[in-house]
Amino acid sequence: MKSTNPNPSLEELLASMEHAGRDARRQQQLAEMVEGLAAKEEAARRRVVRLWTARIAAAACLLGVIFTIVHYLNLPVASTVPMLAEVRPMDVKRPSVAKTPEAMQPSVPLRQEHKVVRQVYPTMELPERLPDLVEEESLIVLTEVPELAPVNLSDFYADVAPEQFPTEALAQAETVEEPKPTERAKRRSIFSIGNSEPDLMEGNTLSIRLI
Amino acid sequence: MDKETKQFEADYLPLQPAMQRMAESLLGNEQEAADVVQDCFVTLWSDRKKLRRVVNREAWCITLVKRRCVDVLRKKHPEVDAEELADTAAEDYTDHDERLLLALRLIDRLPERQARAVRLRHFEEADTQSIALSLQTTEDNVYVLLSRAYKSLKEMILGYEKH
């Protein structure tokens, strides 16, 4: 290791001062250079942010245009989704012989349309609420087709004891008057069981259209 | 200027003289040394996030300058063992620092106008006209001020040697 010169000349001292002065100016230049680099980095970062913002905005606009086109053209992608949501499969059990009169009684009061259905399918489980016949038109798809044999109500009560025989309920059920067909009902039947719209019949399914 | 830039300047700009002296002692050319130091500062700026873990920044910067200088020397003189040269040139810049401290100490003892004239001449590297403008005097008077200052400094250096 070299030792420091103990006897520096005046020229050496002045030269070191000149060096120091140049160093100070170079430091100033380096500071400006660093600030320039920082500004350049910041500009590049902002450019990237702007670019991605524009890309995201363009993608959002494109999606909006696509959805608008799909909506107005009523393409299947958009139009079938709400319809599918309305279709509810309904399990239908095969008719079985009622053991007791209580089993014949519904858990909720029957509406008029329930009673009509009950007449045709005495043991079929009905939904608690049928769709409003006036306001909306619903489609109920039955997954199984019950065997639609002619039903004689007296046969169902053959093995019921006489004191348990629901005479009043049966009489009431048999005396239900069917509603008179309205103008609209004349045009369209209340129940169309797969005979008028073949497109609703698929395989082994039964379509009941309620109006 | 953001906080990061300020922090970088506060951390690394004070190391510039040492880096410059080291590069000058290795390359023997002030301008080339300045270019190498500037190149090193670009590297320091781009690696500033990694350098937060560095404890001894000065040693790290000096090593960086040495390696850059060795690269330059290898390109210029492939036959010279540049790394050995780099090992021997490590202390030169410390001489500069001590001389500068001594010079500043001695100049502080000069009369006010003589000291200002010497600083403007040798630190700012100003010409005689600028010094005269700054001191609000004539150029002839600047020459007189400078010659008296040099004479006083020589006497002080002689006295420093005797001590």
Please tag this protein with its features.
heterodimer, A: 211 residues, mainly alpha, three-stranded mixed β-sheet, 3 strands, 6% strand, B: 163 residues, Arc Repressor Mutant, subunit A, globular
In short, what is this structure?
Chain A has 211 residues and is mostly helical. Chain A has helices spanning 10-73, 76-86, 101-104, 112-120, 153-156, 167-174, 183-187, and strands at 88-90, 138-142, 206-210. Chain A has a 3-stranded mixed sheet with strand order 1-2-3.
Structure description:
The complex is a heterodimer of chains A (211) and B (163). Chain A has 211 residues and is mainly alpha-helical. Chain A has two domains: 10-82; 87-210, no CATH class. Chain A is built from seven helices and three strands, in the order ααβααβαααβ. Chain A has helices at 10-73, 76-86, 101-104, 112-120, 153-156, 167-174, 183-187, and strands at 88-90, 138-142, 206-210. Chain A has a three-stranded mixed β-sheet. Chain A starts with 9 loop residues before the first helix and ends with a strand. By secondary structure, chain B is mostly helical. Chain B folds into two domains: 3-89; 94-162, Winged helix-like DNA-binding domain superfamily/Winged helix DNA-binding domain (Arc Repressor Mutant, subunit A, Orthogonal Bundle), CATH 1.10.10.10. The model of chain B has no long low-confidence stretch (mean pLDDT 86). Chains A and B meet through helix 1 of A and helix 1, helix 2, helix 3, helix 6 and helix 7 of B.
